[in-house]
Write a structure and sequence with these properties.
The complex is a heterodimer. In chain A, 34% of the residues are buried. Chain A is elongated, with a radius of gyration of 19 Å. Chain A is 21% helix and 29% strand. Chain A has a single domain (3-10, 23-114), classed as hypothetical protein PF0899 fold (2-Layer Sandwich), CATH 3.30.2320. In chain A, helix 1 packs across helix 2 (41-52). In chain A, the strands form two sheets. Chain A has a three-stranded mixed sheet with strand order 2-1-6, with helices on one face. Chain A has a three-stranded antiparallel sheet with strand order 4-3-5, with no helix packed on it. Chain A has helices at 3-18, 41-52; strands at 25-34, 61-67, 69-72, 79-82, 99-102, 106-115. Chain B is an alpha/beta fold. Chain B has a single domain, classed as Rossmann fold. Chain B is globular, with a radius of gyration of 18 Å. The mean pLDDT of chain B is 96. The chains are: A alpha+beta, B alpha/beta. The A-B interface holds A 1-2, 5-6, 9-10, 13-14, 17-18, 21, 24, 27, 31, 36-38, 85-89, 96-98, 100, 103-104, 106-117, 122 and B 1-15, 94-96, 98, 129-130, 132-134, 155, 158-160, 162-163, 190-195. Strand 6 of chain A pairs antiparallel with strand 1 of chain B, so a sheet runs across the interface.
C-alpha cells in the first residue's frame, strides 16, 4: 500500500510543473505504469483523490497507461511482449529471457492544462510570469 | 479556454531516485558493498542477518546494518548482539524504506564512518510489494522467502523478485515438515528472474551460509 506515497509524489511533481503556467488549471495527468511497477490502479485512483484534494491539482483526472513487459532474448535476439508477469520467456524460441526492456516504468508522461484565452499562441515556451499586485 | 499538453516524461519517484544515485556514489567511493534485504514479515530476515553479521565479524570483515520497522527497536537490539554497529529506522506506519530515510540515518550515525566498512546491510520493512519501487542506492537487492511461505511466492510478487539480484530461501531446516517442493520453488524464482543466484539457507543449522559468505566476499571485491 504505497500508492498514497506515490500519489503524493505525483501531486508534488505536477504542482511544480504546472506552476510555470500561471492561471492554468490541471485537467488531466497521464501516467505510464509498467506491469512490474507494483501499482494497483484502483488503489492509486483512490489515493489520488485524497492526495490532490485541496491542492493546486485538485479535480484533475488521473489517466493510467499500462505498459506490458517486454523482454529481449539473448539466444535469438527477439524482443517479446509478455502477457502478464508470470513467466519471462521469449515468445520466439521459448528461452528464459532476463533482459527486461520495458515493464518497470513509473512515470508522468504529460499533463493537460486548461488556460484562460489570452489571444496569444499556445504553442512553444510557457507564458512569462506576469507581475501580480 | 485553451488546452495545452505539457510533456513531462519524468519518473514519479525522481526525488527518491536522485537521492539513491547520490547514496550509490557515496557507497562506491567509500568502497562499501551495500545490500538491501527484502521479504515478507516473518521470513527470517533478522535471524539470517544476525548470523551473517556474526560470521563476517569472525572472519575479520567490518559489517554494519540499518534495520527498518514500523515501530520498536527490537530488531536492532537483536542484531547488535552480533557486535556489529546497528541502527534502527522506525518508519511509523510507512510500509517501505526510502532513500531519504537511509540518508538521514547514515548522516547522524556517530562513530560509524562508511569508509571503515566492508559491508552495509539494509534490512527493509517486512513487505514484498512496496520496497520494490524504492531504490536505496544498494548494489545488491536480495529477495528472501522461507520454506513456510509456499513455492509460488515469486509468482505472486514478481515486481520484487524480478528486480532482485539474489534470492535467499530461508528456514530450509523446516523444508521436510512443511512439504516444501524445492524444485518448484527454484523453477518459479527462475521463471520470474532468469539466472538469478539462489541461496538455500538455515539460520538455525547454518546450512548454505558458506556459499552466501563466499558470494559476499566475491561481490565485495568489486566494491
Amino acid at each position: 500500500m504505497h500508492e498514497l506515497s506515490i500519489a503524493a509524489s505525483i501531486v508534488e511533481a505536477v504542482t511544480e510543473s504546472a506552476s510555470a503556467y500561471p492561471g492554468a488549471r490541471v485537467k488531466e495527468v497521464r501516467l505510464r505504469v509498467g506491469a512490474l511497477a507494483s501499482i494497483v490502479e484502483d488503489s492509486l485512483q483512490f489515493c489520488w483523490e485524497l492526495a490532490s484534494e485541496d491542492s493546486p491539482v485538485s479535480g484533475a483526472a488521473l489517466v493510467i497507461h499500462k505498459l506490458p513487459v517486454i523482454v529481449h532474448c539473448d539466444a535469438c535476439g527477439v524482443d517479446s511482449e509478455i502477457e502478464g508477469v508470470q513467466s519471462f520467456r521469449c515468445l520466439q524460441c521459448g528461452e528464459l529471457a532476463a533482459d527486461l526492456r520495458q515493464g518497470r516504468e513509473l512515470e508522468i508522461e504529460s499533463i493537460e492544462l486548461e488556460e484562460p484565452d489570452t489571444g496569444e499562441s499556445q504553442i512553444g515556451a510557457p507564458n512569462p510570469v506576469e507581475e501580480q499586485l | 479556454m485553451t488546452t495545452r499538453i505539457v510533456e513531462l516524461r519524468r519518473g514519479i519517484l525522481k526525488k527518491n531516485d536522485e537521492l539513491a544515485a547520490g547514496l550509490r556514489q557515496r557507497f562506491t567511493s567509500a568502497g562499501v558493498l551495500v545490500l538491501n534485504l527484502v521479504s515478507s514479515p516473518g521470513t527470517g530476515k533478522t535471524a539470517f542477518l544476525e548470523l551473517t553479521l556474526r560470521e563476517l565479524r569472525s572472519r575479520g570483515a567490518k559489517a554494519a546494518a540499518l534495520v527498518g520497522d514500523l515501530e520498536t527497536d527490537n530488531d536492532a537490539r537483536r542484531l547488535a548482539a552480533s557486535g556489529a554497529p546497528v541502527r534502527q529506522i522506525n518508519t511509523h506506519g510507512i510500509c517501505h524504506l526510502d532513500a531519504e530515510m537511509v540518508t538521514k540515518h547514515l548522516d547522524g550515525w556517530e562513530g560509524v564512518p562508511l569508509a571503515g566498512l566492508n559491508y552495509l546491510f539494509i534490512e527493509n520493512v517486512g513487505n514484498l510489494v512496496c520496497p520494490s519501487s524504492y531504490d536505496l542506492g544498494e548494489r545488491i537487492r536480495v529477495a528472501l522467502l522461507s520454506v513456510t511461505e509456499g513455492e509460488d511466492k515469486p509468482l505472486k510478487y514478481p515486481g520484487l523478485f524480478n528486480s532482485s539480484d539474489a534470492a535467499v530461501i530461508t528456514k530450509i531446516d523446516l523444508a521436510a515438515p512443511c512439504g516444501f517442493d524445492r524444485e518448484l520453488a527454484l523453477k518459479n524464482i527462475n521463471e520470474i528472474r532468469p539466472g538469478i543466484r539462489i541461496f538455500e539457507t538455515s539460520a538455525k543449522t547454518g546450512a548454505g551460509m558458506e556459499e552466501w559468505l563466499a558470494y559476499l566476499a566475491e561481490q565485495a571485491r568489486y566494491s
